[in-house]
Amino acid sequence: MYLARIIGTVVATQKDASLKGVKLMVIQPIDSNGQDAGQPVVAADTIGAGYGEIVFCAKSKEGAMPLRDPNAPVDAGIIGIVDSIYNKA
Predict the structure, then answer these.
(1) Cβ-proximal residues to 86 (8 Å cutoff; 6+ apart), any chain
(2) pLDDT 10s digit of each residue in the chain, 89 long?
(3) Which three-class secondary structure string do you get for the chain?
(4) Which of 43, 58, 74, 88 could be bridged to 64 by S-S, CB 3.0 to 4.6 A?
């Protein structure tokens, strides 16, 4: 799992039938200090997160597990919304 910030949405006129009704979001992976860590990724939104929110994400097969079809072609999935981050310095 990793942290990310939602930076956009994806509009797809056609997508795999197993993703019908699933929002696709563009996420920017971040570190625990909120700094960008890597390239943006498209992730399936399984919980109704919104633009600018910090979220927990899962990669690979685990990203599709919360979907109606756990075999959907998903490489990343949003699985939780982060309320706050406490960094003990």
Answers:
(1) none
(2) 899 999 999 998 898 998 888 899 999 999 988 899 999 999 999 899 999 999 999 998 788 888 888 888 888 999 999 998 887 76
(3) CEEEEEEEEECCCCCCHHHCCCEEEEEEEECCCCCECCCCEEEEECCCCCCCCEEEEEEHHHHHCCCCCCCCCCCEEEEEECCCCCCCC
(4) 74
87 CB burial (10 A radius; 0-12, 13-18, 19+) = exposed
CB-based contacts of 48, cutoff 8 Å, min separation 6: 23
Contact 29/4 with Cβ under 8 angstroms?
yes
Global pTM reads: 0.87
